[in-house]
């Protein structure tokens, strides 16, 4: 993993969650985002970038010193903007591959990230799949990483035409695919064993 950077997306506004900052909400005795942060720290990325909304000092504090924060000054424009900023940071610092993780997916394991990385060398996109659903985390290399810099809006990487790339799908359990979007999700998955 030493030649791949991480783009850790913690830049959303969490509109469906309510007034509280979803990523700082208590989830199994620590802030929600800290679960994904700790998984990312286990993986040996060459560099760790984290896209956060401007003015969210507490999110940055939860990233520890192992992440380079990238402030998204317009987080309301959607996930595509955050991906674009992260991809640009990777390319500007000489990385040609990046693993994209979401801060609100607390159950993704470092083993799954390892499976993605093990398949990434021969593919432009190596992405997780649960059943028919394609979702993060994912690794983008070369042309696919460059194309992330053109994104805007809420679709994120799904806005890319995957038929243009050499793509590898790596199966992920439904449990790992859980992302926390609402206060109800936080309660439901916070109490599951």
Helix coverage percent of residues?
25-40%
Largest sheet, if any? 7 strands, mixed
Counted beta strands: 9
Shape: globular
Distance N to C terminus? 30 Å
Give me the secondary-structure category: alpha/beta
Q: Provide the residue-averaged pLDDT.
A: 90
CATH architecture: Alpha-Beta Complex
- Total number of distinct structural domains: 1
Descriptive report:
- The protein has 193 residues and is an alpha/beta fold.
- The chain has a single domain (5-187), classed as Spore Coat Polysaccharide Biosynthesis Protein SpsA, Chain A (Alpha-Beta Complex).
- The protein has 6 helices and 9 strands; from the N terminus they run E-E-E-H-E-H-E-H-E-H-E-E-H-E-H.
- The protein has helices at residues 32-42, 57-63, 79-92, 110-120, 143-148, 183-190; strands at residues 5-9, 26-27, 30-31, 47-53, 68-72, 97-102, 125-130, 133-141, 167-171.
- It has a 7-stranded mixed sheet with strand order 5-4-1-6-8-7-9, sandwiched between helices.
- A hairpin with a 2-residue loop joins strand 7 (125-130) and strand 8 (133-141).
- The longest helix is centred in the middle third of the chain and has 14 residues, at 79-92.
- The radius of gyration is 15 Å and the shape is globular.
